[in-house]
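Tokens as discussed.
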């Protein structure tokens, strides 16, 4: 078999598979669009996303300014400061989502100190 025939066979095989894939994706998309429970699912996703929000951008800026954009533990000024919940109630406690977002409970830490605290149990101390 010469090369031209071989290329043509490969080209036909490739484009046939592309068309089949395209049809499959479109059929799944249309099934999803026509799903009667779609709006309920989207509402549930949005509700969960809102529940995950911990504190607003304004609150974050206030906390960063209070700590002068520096880590409360080591004093470094990180490029990406993180907000840490002092009582460790940031997301879920015993399976219940009730974060304590009081400004007195939040502190600025660098990623290194935050990782050391959560991974290896190092204690964070406020050095101000």
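Sequence:
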């Amino acid at each position: 078999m010469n090369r031209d025939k071989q290329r043509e066979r490969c080209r036909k095989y490739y484009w046939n598979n592309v068309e089949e894939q395209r049809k499959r994706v479109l059929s799944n998309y249309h099934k999803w669009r026509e799903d009667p429970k779609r709006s309920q699912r989207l509402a549930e996703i949005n509700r969960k996303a809102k529940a995950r929000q911990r504190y607003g951008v304004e609150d974050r800026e206030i906390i960063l300014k209070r700590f002068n954009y520096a880590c409360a533990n080591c004093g470094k000024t990180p490029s990406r400061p993180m907000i840490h919940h002092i009582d460790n109630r940031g997301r879920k406690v015993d399976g219940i989502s009730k974060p304590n977002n009081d400004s007195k409970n939040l502190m600025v830490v660098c990623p290194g100190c935050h990782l050391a605290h959560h991974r290896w149990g190092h204690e964070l101390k406020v050095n101000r």
